[in-house]
Amino acid sequence: MMNRADFLTTKRPYHGTVPPDHPEVLLFDANLQEFAQKVGYISCLETSGKLPPDLAFKEIEALWTKLQKTKNAMGL
Fold first, then answer.
1. Over the stretch 34-53, which tens digit does the pLDDT of each residue have?
2. How many domains are contained in the chain?
3. Taking the CA of residue 23 as centre, how many other CA atoms within 13 Å lie in the half-sphere pointing to its CB?
4. What is the phi-psi region of residue 75: left when phi exceeds 0, alpha when psi lies from -120 to 50, beta otherwise?
5. What pLDDT score does 3 carry?
6. Quick one: pLDDT at residue 23?
7. How far is residue 46's CA from residue 51's CA, in Å, rounded to a whole number?
8. Is residue 53 domain-resident?
């Protein structure tokens, strides 16, 4: 059964082939989906005037840095 949180944070299945020796590809895909979803929320808030552009930029930049760190930590 889906609840409100599941509706707002939907996940799509990975459509590529996962190499047997690199299961971290699935984890990075999940992180990438979360990044994209948060960027979408931030951009909508900025577009509607509920978030200043400079704060929106800083939040997206922080999310990007976090995504890069996880990518490097996984060795991808």
1. 999 999 999 999 999 999 99
2. 1
3. 0
4. left
5. 67
6. 78
7. 5
8. yes
The rounded radius of gyration (Å) of the Cα atoms in the chain is 15
In this prediction, residues 48-73 reach a mean pLDDT of: 96
The pairs formed by 57-60 with CB atoms below 8 angstroms and a separation of 24 or more are: none
- pTM score, whole prediction: 0.77
Rounded to 10 deg, the angle between the 53-74 and 24-47 helix axes is 180
Domain that holds residue 74: 47-76
Distance of alpha carbon 26 from alpha carbon 40, whole angstroms? 21
Split at pLDDT 50, 70, 90, the class of 7 is: low
CA–CA separation, 44 and 74 (whole Å): 30
Residue type, position 5, single letter: A
